[in-house]
Structure formats: structure tokens, C-alpha cells
Amino acid sequence: MMHVVLSIVFENRLLFPPITRPRRVLECGFGAGDWAIDVAQQHPNCEVVAIDICPHIWPDESQTPTNLNLQVDDLNSRYISRRASAADHALRRWSRRYLDSMQPYKDPRAPMQMQSWMQSAGFDSVETQMIPLPTCGWSNDPRQHQIGVANRENVRRMLASLAMYPMTEFRGMTSQEFQVLVAQARSEADNPAFRDERLVVETSR
Fold first, then answer.
1. Residue 132 has what pLDDT?
2. E-strand spans in the chain?
3. Domain residue ranges in the chain
4. H or E segment at 98?
5. pLDDT value at position 150?
6. pLDDT per position as a tens digit, 149-190
7. In the chain, what's the furthest Cα-to-Cα distance?
8. Which CATH number fits the domain 2-72, given the four candidates 3.10.350.10, 2.60.40.10, 3.40.50.150, 3.90.550.10?
9. Pick from 132, 136, 151: which is nearest to 191 by CA?
10. How far apart are CA 48 and CA 70, in angstroms?
11. Could you read off the pLDDT of 21-42 as tens digits, one per residue?
């Protein structure tokens, strides 16, 4: 009811000051979630994170927008956004540890250098294109959504198969530590609110 009252008071304005294309919105203490749902619906390309300590009045998550992420947290304790904290971002931890474990042997980022290598070898008219590849079906664009849905299982498998040997053999992670990291990274890759994507590098001449 309070959301209805405030909507009248603020003449249906949801954000102050006016923001035309917000990228991320955090609501602290969302209650029944009415305001967060309205913001997520009005701005489908915005990631909306809403936190509250009391989950029993949550809205039905099956009816909430895919760009809305509801979380349980205590506002009286120190809160750190998972998106804003690189140290607590499982996909970034996975990437950092994988690159670190592969450094003495191979460079997984070699495709990023392909254009300069080909030009150094004498090729001309070399072009590199960075192609976004969604990790799940979070995109509102029909084509990107289809790609993300098709790519989801591939990402889940890759997070385990690509890194298991180098992380456990080269950097000494235990099997349990590795499985925990993979599970957390998979959870983030599957979460539409993270809007995560990988980049495919295409080099041609």
C-alpha cells in the first residue's frame, strides 16, 4: 500500500533525479518488492538488485522480471554488492585463477594478439571483430537471447573441463575448492541479473 501512496505523491516517478537509461539500481529494504518490480519492468535493460532481511513477504519470483535479483541481507551489517566487488565475483575469480595457472605454459588470451601477429607476418587488411556471446538467455534481443540459451550448457561444461587440470595440477587447488568455485561461477553465469557475456575474437583478412 505504501508504494501506491508514494506513487501518487511522486506522480508515478520512480527515480530521483530523473535518469533516462539507468544501468544498475539497488533497493535497500524492498518489502513486498513493488517498487523494484516497477523499476525492472520500466527499464528492462537495467540490472535491479533488491535486498531485504525478511524473505516471507517476497513476491512470487516466477512473476518477477528477469532483470530483477532479490537477495536476503542485513542492512545493519556491512553490505557489499556482488557485482561491484571483484574479490567476491566468482566468474572473475575463475578467470583470474585460470589465467594464472596457464601463464607458464600457454596464453589463453593469444587470440587478442592475432591481428598484430598477422600484420607483423606481412598480411595486410587484417580486421579483428569482438563478438559478444551471452552466457545464458538474459538478453532482450531475440537473437542474442537465442544464442545465450544455446550457449548456457556449453558455458557450464567449459567452466569445469577447461580449468580442472591447470587449477588443480599447476596451482594446487584441492578438488573440493575447485568444485566450489565452479559451482559459484556456474550460478553467476546462469543468473540473468549478472548479464554476463564472453567475447569471441574473429580475425580475418
1. 74
2. 24-28, 47-52, 68-72, 127-134, 197-204
3. 2-72, 86-204
4. helix 90-102
5. 85
6. 888 888 898 899 989 999 998 888 999 999 999 998 998 888
7. 69
8. 3.40.50.150
9. 136
10. 8
11. 888 888 877 878 888 899 999 9
